[in-house]
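cron nightly-structures :: item 1 of 1
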Amino acid sequence: MEDWSADAEQLADLLVAAEDIKAFLDGLAVLGASVMSRVTETRIECAVTLERRKRISTIGGSSDKAMVLDRIEQTLGEGPCVEALTRDRPVLLEDSLSSPQWSEYCQALSAAGMRSTLGVPMELEQGASAVLNFFAPIPGSFSSRAVESALTFAGVAGKALRLAVRITVLNENAADLDAAMNNRSVIDTACGVIISQNRCTPQEAFDILRKASNDRNQKLHDLARILVAGVPAHQQAHET
């Protein structure tokens, strides 16, 4: 039986060391290629496609070639990876030269020097989905044992990826909150400037700023920044 403890440890190390979700996906793809090369005794390339918010957002690859191979499928909108992601089940292309499916994709895959592909979905939380795409230069490389190994690896990798996505979402939410707070601050300062210049109430100042934003077809916080930028710092401090 395959021992996955070392691979799980590598995934944990990747999770700690990766600077962002793209770096983690690249590392995951490199590890996936290594695992499947070991199982099949063939040089395997691997790509990982992560879909969030109903759009394909991030692709990681074991190499530049793996990235190109994955983009072929995404561009054409057909192939094992696309089907695995859509149907949430493993999809195998045994030989691109004899398969009756995905004729355009099979031609492009063969031209790129690959003959077999295996797409394996990973279980993520609601709002996100991912698939591992393995590429082999030899037809029939993915035996039943290899497919079973790919499924096991996907289960192990999916746990790490779920945590990576959670961390990414938390970071994005924190960044959105910081941006919202910064926008609120500059709007308040701009309203202070308008109050000082027009001797009006805070609500009237905000209404003036909002009307100007609508008239100019400009975002409220962008217009506020322009207004604040034109006022000396010492005057801003007095007005806020």
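cron nightly-structures :: done
The radius of gyration is 26 Å.
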